[in-house]
Amino acid sequence: MDSVRSPEWPVAPLGGVAANSAAARYGMSPGTGPIVGRAGPPPTAPPPYRPSSGTGSAPSAGKPSAPPIPVKILVAGGFGVGKTTTVGAISEIAPLTTEAEMTSAGIGVDDPGARSTKTTTTVAMDFGCVTIDRSLKLYLFGTPGQTRFGFMWDDLARGALGALVVVDSARLDDCYPAIDFFERAGLPFVVGVNAFDGRLALELGEIRWALAIGDHVPLVQFDARDRLSVRDALLVVLDRALDRATRDRRA
């Protein structure tokens, strides 16, 4: 994990195209042509993802219960896709946020989308936690979405077992750097499409094609504002991480 490099986002000039957009990454002309995904999936993809059906064992009577195992999960994605909302919706403690007011200096650089009413932005990270059961506790770290904070991703990813990449279906190009980062890191991740206003701009099959992700990557729809919906998405991340750990142990 220490050798993984942060996303190499170019710095966008003031008023220019966002540095992590498809136009900046692939030399496209903004606003023209159909949705174009990434260059393609990794050359060698793991087998398709299949949810496990195993059941855990109850603790033996008379033995003192051990403290829950801490599991670090990242919540990543582009700017303004709902990462802070995701962490806040599920955290059983008051989430730690590092929100700052957006100013005119970010015009043309930080673009939350036309539908967004966002007035603040994460400048370091978000943190929350949730207890799954008596044996497992998730610690959630939300990454900053702005391009200028990409250097922090290496430190935040250290020790993580999996990641939830939050996606806005109307701005798919903003999530390409996150997907590229976790593919290079070899870290299990799940793509969670945040249903803004309960609707998606594209079908899930179209989103999978545009993102050029293989069948081994789970793609789910969820609502970042709803606790149960976020819980279900995180359980898929946990199941994906456990599936990877099981395959590595058998290898």
What can you tell me about this protein's structure?
β7, α5 and β8 (219-222) form a beta-alpha-beta unit. The strands form 2 sheets. A 6-stranded mixed β-sheet has the order 4-5-1-6-7-8, sandwiched between helices. Strands 2-3 form a two-stranded antiparallel ribbon. It is an alpha/beta fold. It contains 6 helices and 8 strands. It is globular and about 55 Å long. It has helices at residues 22-26, 83-90, 153-157, 176-185, 204-211, 227-250; strands at 69-77, 99-101, 120-122, 126-133, 136-142, 162-168, 189-194, 219-222. Residues 11-36 and 103-109 have low confidence and may be disordered. The longest helix is centred in the last third of the chain and has 24 residues, at 227-250. α2 crosses α6. The protein has a single domain (22-29, 70-250), classed as 3-Layer(aba) Sandwich (Rossmann fold), CATH 3.40.50.
Number of helices: 6
Side by side, the strands of the main sheet go: 4-5-1-6-7-8
Shape: globular
Largest sheet: 6 strands, mixed
- Structural category is alpha/beta
Mean pLDDT, all residues: 75
CATH class: Alpha Beta
CATH fold annotation: Rossmann fold
Helix proportion of residues, in percent? 10-25%
CATH superfamily: P-loop containing nucleotide triphosphate hydrolases
The sequence of SSEs as H and E is HEHEEEEHEHEHEH
The low-confidence parts are: 11-36, 103-109
Cα-atom radius of gyration: 18 Å
Number of self-contained structural domains? 1
The counted number of beta strands is 8
Distance between the termini: 20 Å
Reported CATH architecture: 3-Layer(aba) Sandwich
Q: What percentage of the residues does DSSP assign to strands (E)?
A: 15-25%
